[in-house]
Amino acid sequence: MKSCACIKEAQVAFLNSSFLRSADYDENTYRLVLTMHNGKRYLYSGVPKHIYDGPIKSGSKGRFYDTFIRGKFPSSRC
Questions:
Q1: pTM score, two decimals?
Q2: Quick one: which of 40, 35, 42 has its CA closest to 73?
């Protein structure tokens, strides 16, 4: 399993969601780490800042994830 240590200077947002626990974003590398409530963590590469901001502002974090993140960026479990 890959480490998510590549997120060095991350902005962390704890989300009020039944699907996502937190989102960590590094503006310098455009890397996003999403932590699900089941404890699984996924690293997404090449993610623009406005995509990171989306789940924070979105009413449905799960719907935002399905529409704008899942399958749209290179990803790996970490």
A1: 0.80
A2: 42
HSE-CB for 46 with a 13 A CA cutoff: 8
**Residue 54: both structure tokens together:** 């989306």
For residues 48 and 1, give the distance between their C-alpha atoms in angstroms, rounded to a whole number: 25
Pairing of strands 31-36, 41-44: antiparallel
Starting at the edge strand found earlier in the chain, the sheet holding 31-36 runs 11-14, 20-26, 31-36, 41-44, 75-77
- 25-45 pLDDT, tens digit per residue, is 999 999 999 988 888 999 999
Which residue pairs, CB below 8 angstroms and at least 24 apart, start in 70-74?
73/32, 73/44, 73/45, 73/46, 73/47, 74/44, 74/45, 74/46
